[in-house]
Amino acid sequence: MLLAFRAPSELVFTLLPASKESFKTWQWSLFSFSLLSVCSQGRSKSSGLCFSDGKSHIDYILVYRKSSSQSEKREVFERNIRAEGLHMEKEASLTNSDVIFLKLHAPWDVLCRYAELMNIRMPFRRKIFYMHRRHKMEKRINKFRGLLPRKPMKFDNDALPDLEENESFTAPFSRSRIHHFIIHNKDTFFSNATRSRIVHHILQRVRYEEGKNKMGLNRLLSNNSYEAAFPLHEGSYHSKNSIRTHGAENHRHLLYECWAWWGVWYKYQPLDLIRRYFGEKIGLYFAWLGWYTGMLFPAALVGLLVFLYGVFTLEQCQVSKEICQATDVIMCPICDEYCPYLRLSDSCIYAKVTHLFDNGATVFFAVFMAVWGKSSFLLYFTLVCLYLVFQDEIRPQFEAKYSKKERMNPISGKPEPYQAFTDKYSRLIVSTSGIFFMILVVIAAVFGIVIYRVITVSTFAAFGWALIRNNSQVATTGTAVCINFCVIMLLNVVSFCLPLKWYVGTLLEQPRTESEWENSFTLKMFLFQFVNLNSSTFYIAFFLGRFTGRPGAYLRLINRWKLEECHPSGCLIDLCMQMGIIMVLKQTWNNFMELGSPLIQNWWTRRKLSREHGPNAKASFPQWERDYHLQPMNAYGLFDEYLEMILQFGFTTIFVAAFPLAPLLALLNNIIEIRLDAYKFVTQWRRPLPSQAKDIGIWYGILEGIGILSVITNAFVIAVTSDFIPRLVYAYKYGPCAGQGRAGEGCMMGYVNASLSVFRVSDFEKRSQYRDYREPPDSAEPYTYTLQFWHVLAARLAFIIVFEHMVFAIKTLIAYLIPDLPKDLRDRMRREKYLIQEMMYEAELERLQKEKNEKKKKKDRVHHKEWP
């Protein structure tokens, strides 16, 4: 699969109409409606999409209250808006007389002027495609597939025609070469998303007071001069008539029917339509989310097979058999005061559960997931990123602060604001210190959870309820995970409630461009969120039970409490519980908050309006009034959406060797997540500002870093946390099959007893045992490490090195065999670039020749008049 913008139609996922009879209707649905045409046709203003004259299209809405104390700033700001050439119209709210809507419209000359300044790429010439042999073969294959019955997920290239911009070359808009651009209608040449982006660009650079920093809409929103600012939705997403018989009323209605409606959860996403309506940035997010979800299918299938392998081989597992039959093996207490001596057979159930996740297929799955995360997943991004090219804009705040210091841009050759090296990095150091402080808070919280686990295990061991008392360690782990989840969510809320924007690269750092601002904010906040979510998991995976000492010489916390030990069946069951509970609770909470919060708030707003103005009052409101009562997009844009999925990706890959069902849980969540986000964007939120983006930004580097970290952590989980290496060493070196070069369940007889050490208890009639490789008390060197311990340690280190090198070698080989950019696609892009340059050159020659001819004609006319 390949998702790409501005790609040939066979590479763009669209919704398949139900039948060929609805083909014409869907064609009309995609192209025949336009908000600009609604205004140009002079329809009434009741729709709320136009000015009162019924002709000027509303490109942006500003909302303020008459009772606000910032009227002087607003007046200056609006006066400067008129000076920029924007048209304005004010109208009072129908529900609150104190609320005023300021409607903005950008005329043609303003759009052309700023499109040139912003280097917006517009359709330049029709594309002339050349056909590769591969494309011819694909066409034949698709023709053959067309004879087969249609599948639910299958899409038809002929069902929806290409969008106009996909059929055309694009070039930065220039007024001097305007006659070379494809302009059928001035009202529809600039799309609604482009018009809104241009108006927002103007508003960000308009001054509201005299001063270097007294500019921009964002500052007026922060000081409550304006209450809200947003572009309009293109009408209602509902219709009384069926879309298959009457067509879609607008793009929003079409998006709802083919994307946000729950009935099409199994369909591909109409990415081009999403991009046209919400902009490239949001379109890239949904393209990435769709690709990630698709890539989870093989990972979830393999993980499920590994789990099923553990289920089917449970009865043949020699280790669990020996644990279940070890009724005469007495184990040391897991705590000091109330914990009794245990029989090893009491761990029978936990040993069987551990085998479901830690079995012979786990190593294969870890290698598969490491290669999956490092190779197949990351190959996608370059394909998407190269289709979008735009020039990043300098932030107006940066321009205002460093306007007096300028230097020549080596690329454009134009002077631009400049930030000194010392100023830049001194600000960076100060801003970074805030995040490191928050990370220390997280580490302190994890330490508190460790103390809770150490103290509570004794409390549960003396509990009155027998079920809790007999399973005190599992109860301790379960409650600790739930408390840890609450701490994680609390710290997440605190990190966004505190004024961390001063510390994570916004006002204090003064980044030069918007992408630098987003990258700085994203990296620092991701580090905090990642540490917050995974720190306790790292503790359980690599520290729990590793430094407790031995009976008679335990290491204690504050010289009082013995450090927590692993369960007799191993530490993997604790790690599985940690991952399973956190993953399920976090995904459930996120989905509820993402959709539940705006649904409840919008329901409450509708309830208030119906009480005051009647049950059907909102339907009669103009569009700006209806959009005003929707919820605004969160202040951090797509950061929360990306963060949730990236953290899930890390949780799925970093410790996947301990929890093979993680990809399946992630897949089920993401299938719901796509429609939740779609429904939220289309129906519950105001229309976000359409923004351009050439890629997913710094998230690409974060994903690559997570891929590298997952290889290392999975190697350590298998080598250190699981019993795979000790079992392997025993089978080849100490078991019944030692020296025979084979390992199987029959070679594991006696492994449990070989993995236990003996401790003499003076006040107990029998000797108790514990998990370790130490000499018995009656040996020459009691309680020292045995030779088997050093063999296991050497095997663990060797496995980590071999595992990492093997995975990275496989990844490098795959990257070599399957390049990031296929040759035919690279050739097409080079040819397109060549043709654009050639056409630009021809257009310039044509313009110069035309000017030359005009000058010659003018000269001839002058000469003719002068000649008697």
From TrEMBL:
GO terms for molecular function: intracellularly calcium-gated chloride channel activity; protein dimerization activity. The keyword Cell membrane applies. Its main location: membrane. The keyword Glycosyltransferase does not apply. Residues 831-865 form a coiled coil. It comes from the Eukaryota. It is found in: Cell membrane; Membrane. Residues 50-271 form the Anoctamin dimerisation domain. Residues 274-832 form the Anoctamin transmembrane domain. InterPro entries: Anoct_dimer, Anoctamin, Anoctamin_TM. It is a multi-pass membrane protein. Keywords: Cell membrane, Coiled coil, Glycoprotein, Membrane, Transmembrane, Transmembrane helix. Belongs to the anoctamin family. This is Anoctamin. It comes from Anabas testudineus.
